[in-house]
Specification:
By secondary structure, the protein is α/β, with parallel strands linked by helices. It is about 35% helix and about 20% strand. It has helices spanning about 20-35, 55-65, 75-80, 95-105, 120-130, 150-160, 180-190, 190-195, 220, 225-245, 255-265, 385-390, 395-405, 415-430, 445-450, and strands at about 10-15, 45-50, 85-90, 110-115, 140, 170, 200-210, 275-280, 300-305, 315-320, 325-335, 355-360, 365-370, 375-385, 435-440. It has a nine-stranded mixed beta sheet, with helices on both faces. Strands 3-2-1-4-5-6 form a six-stranded parallel beta sheet, sandwiched between helices. This is Glucose-6-phosphate 1-dehydrogenase.
């Protein structure tokens, strides 16, 4: 169970699923980049079903890293490859864990990283416990953490039977994105923003996650899940919590997670009457998708935060695939200035906005209003690019894997936040409205989504990197 050892740096990463799709696209690249930065200080034991030799794994790793767009430095990769070893077998078979225990040795401080289907989280952790490989160890698991509130509670109960909460790291790669982390400091370190960040100044909050690609070859995975479970319940609600929480009382992991959990507790359960579902034309033709599927590839909803800071401020979330742009942003609409006699008609001016672009090319925009030479209102934007101003950040999986290895739990979701997130969206799962069709390359079922924000600031076209 938990001890001070759980906060010590690990000397071994046990990577269950090292030959899988996520490792090929993301995590092998992240580990290589940590090696390049001099931040990787452990051996890596890969575990997977493929009957490969170590040489095959090393070649797969090199190809995967190169295919991800990363330039492979031979010297760096040679150092990285020397850290690798490999065990193949069935993760439900005791024989595999006996070999793993022998490879680890009695004094290892391990992070067991499960890049596996959630249905295997419980069996793997129970086997690790039965073979005495959890003392002083940490276990990192990928989302999804359940598929509804009951299953999330069941999974937590099963994992907590053999793990302390301090040992369990729940990965949501959005929590590793630099601008998501930066919002905490932007809000509370800058009085110019902190004084605006409440119901007195903000009239509405919009959070958009748009992807300009469809489900493509992931139909069998995506169809039982849909946009609400895939990105809203986890990514967008975690972002909402960071954007609207109260300041943490200290710098520890639980100080931050106490505040995000507290915020999510204050969010009222979503109302299906304020929920729009969409499905892009052609989704039913994707291999692996049921021909009569009503799975949503677009979700938009309204939420309310029942606390002193945000009471009465509507929160609008939307996420969709096959949309016009790939962009994720948070947009705060500020209240209008009072009407003063010397000003032109204020209704002609856009409300001021604060925009945090999370992806791509993270940055901050202040949308203001100025008077042109003809006496009319014109928009004036003040933009900042984080990469230009703050330097190249760690990529999300670099940051998260490094945090797991050094014992920093700050960027990982805690059990209470996970369950509160499911509580918020559970009514939408229980009483899902019909899906509306929308065209690829659009902004979703706009007529229905516009009704959702009626009486408030309209949906804005997100701030894209090509805008001046």
């Amino acid at each position: 169970m938990a001890s001070d050892d759980n906060r010590k740096p690990a000397d071994t990463l046990v990577d269950f699923g090292i030959t899988g799709d996520l490792a090929r696209k993301m995590t092998l690249r992240a580990l290589y980049r940590l090696e390049r930065r001099g931040l990787l200080d452990c051996r890596i034991i890969g575990v997977a079903a493929q009957d490969w030799t170590l040489a095959q794994l090393i070649e797969h790793a090199k190809t995967s890293i190169a295919d991800s767009g990363e330039k492979v430095d031979e010297t760096v990769f040679e150092r990285f490859a020397k850290r690798l070893s490999y065990i193949s077998g069935d993760v439900t078979d005791d024989a595999l864990y006996a070999r793993l225990a022998e490879e680890l040795g009695p004094d290892a401080r391990a992070v067991h990283y499960l890049q596996m289907p959630p249905s295997l989280f419980g069996p793997i952790v129970e086997k690790l416990g039965a073979h005495d490989m959890l003392t002083g160890a940490r276990v990192a698991v990928e989302k999804p953490f359940g598929h509804d509130l009951d299953s999330a509670r069941d999974l937590n109960t099963r994992l907590r039977a053999v793990l302390a909460e301090e040992q369990l790291l729940r990965l949501d790669h959005f929590l590793g994105k630099a601008p998501v982390i930066e919002v905490e400091y932007l809000r509370f370190a800058n009085l110019a923003l902190a004084e605006l960040w409440d119901r007195h100044s903000v009239s509405a909050i919009q959070i958009t996650m748009a992807e300009n690609f469809g489900v493509e070859d992931r139909g069998a995975f995506y169809d039982p899940v849909g946009a609400l479970r895939d990105v809203v319940q986890n990514h967008l609600l975690q972002v909402l919590a960071l954007v609207t929480m109260e300041p943490p009382v200290g710098a520890g992991a639980d100080d931050l997670r106490d505040k995000t959990g507290e915020l999510l507790k204050s969010v009222s359960a979503a109302d299906p009457k304020h929920y729009v579902r969409g499905q892009y034309a052609g989704y039913l033709d994707v291999p692996g998708v049921r021909k009569d599927s009503d799975t949503e590839t677009y979700a938009a909803l309204r939420l309310e935060i029942d606390n002193w800071r945000w009471a009465g401020v509507p929160i609008f979330l939307r996420a969709g695939k096959a949309m016009a742009e790939r962009v994720t942003e948070v947009r705060l609409h500020l209240r209008r200035s009072p009407r003063l006699a010397f000003l032109p008609k204020l209704q002609q001016a856009e409300q001021n906005q604060i925009v945090l672009r999370i992806d791509p090319n993270p940055g901050l925009r202040l949308a203001l209003t100025a008077k042109d030479n003809d006496g009319g209102w014109v928009p004036l934007t003040l933009d900042s690019s984080f990469a230009q101003e703050l330097g190249e950040p760690l990529e999300p999986y670099e940051r998260l894997l490094h945090g797991a290895l050094v014992g920093d739990a700050q960027l990982f979701a805690r059990e209470d936040s996970v369950e509160e997130s499911w509580r918020i969206v559970q009514p939408l799962i229980d009483a899902a409205p019909p899906v509306h069709s929308y065209e690829r390359g659009s902004w979703g079922p706009t007529a229905e989504a516009d009704k959702l924000v009626r009486g408030h600031a309209k949906w804005h076209k997100p701030w894209t990197p090509d805008e001046v």
